Amino acid sequence: MELFQYPYMQRALIGALVIGLAAPALGIYLVQRRLALIGDGVGHVALTGVGAGLLLNRSPVLVAVVVATVGAITIELVRARGRTSGDLALALLFYGGIAGGVMLVGLSDSTSANLNAYLFGSLTTISPGDLTTIAVLGAAILVTMLALRPALFAVCHDEEYARVSGLPVRTLNMLLAVATAVTVTIAMRAVGVLLISALMVVPVATAQQVTRGFRSTMAAATALGLFAAGSGVWVAANADTAPGASVVLMAIASFGAVALLGAAWRVLRRRRTPAAAPAPEPHEVVLR
User: Fold this and answer.
1) Rounded to two decimals, what is the model's pTM?
2) At a CB cut-off of 8 Å and minimum separation 6, what does 246 contact?
3) What is the pLDDT of residues 244-277, one digit of tens each?
4) From CA 38, how far away is CA 33, in angstroms rounded?
5) Which of 32, 23, 233 minimizes the C-alpha distance to 124?
6) pLDDT tens-place string over residues 16-38
7) For the residues of the chain, what is the DSSP string, one character each?
8) How many whole angstroms separate alpha carbon 229 and alpha carbon 288?
9) Which positions ≥6 away from 198 have C-beta within 8 Å?
């Protein structure tokens, strides 16, 4: 715990906790819409923004926010019009984003170390300005997801019913797209663009194993996200491992632990439940 006396470790912990709260709060809507992998697609587009920022000597994070937002809105428009399937649209994001990012980074004078900081995260290099940006945008994402929960749930559960009910479906879909882009970009310095999707999805998948209602699942997912973020930073500080990878591995470990406990509980319940008595055989009727 002595490492957390240093300001850079305190910033790393706070930044990870903010992301651990905001990412699952958004991810539950993406899982509900069966778009669990959209975070990866937007992350690849954000990599193009990072490359553009490095090439133009501008803030990579700010450029990535703009590029990722444009990419997320574009993919939502393509999906809504139905001309391209969701899987194909995500594939376009994956391949186009990573290709554009690699090309632009290659054209810039950036070193591979700078690129790795965005690919896999670099919590210990978060500056006070970076932490302020993460805290403000992360809080905005969390408040928006909580305040608009009924409307967003309706859109994600049954888009046609939400439209008939008078909800602004297209606006809410665009809001989710923009929120995804913002979450991915603010998490680049924490867990990296290649790992942020896991922090959006894995806590939600873990919570779904033990909860039933949407509200309880959301609460459990955010709590699990906080646990994964805090414990991941602690493990990274003590074992000298990559903080972003440690956070994601703690989230996956939580999923595995809950899955094993759930399976053991079901086996125990079956053993405790008395077997039903066999039904009596029908008496043979003898006609005389």
Assistant:
1) 0.82
2) 232, 233, 235, 236, 239
3) 888 889 999 999 999 999 888 888 888 877 655 5
4) 10
5) 233
6) 889 989 999 999 998 888 777 77
7) -GGGGSHHHHHHHHHHHHHHHHHHHHHHHHHHTT-TTHHHHHHHHHHHHHHHHHHHTS-HHHHHHHHHHHHHHHHHHHHHHTSS-HHHHHHHHHHHHHHHHHHHHHHS---HHHHHHHHS--GGG--HHHHHHHHHHHHHHHHHHHHTHHHHHHHHH-HHHHHHTT--HHHHHHHHHHHHHHHHHHTTTTT-TTTHHHHHHHHHHHHHTT--SHHHHHHHHHHHHHHHHHHHHHHHHHHT--HHHHHHHHHHHHHHHHHHHHHHHHHHHHHHSPPPPPPPPPPPPPP-
8) 80
9) 191, 248, 251, 252
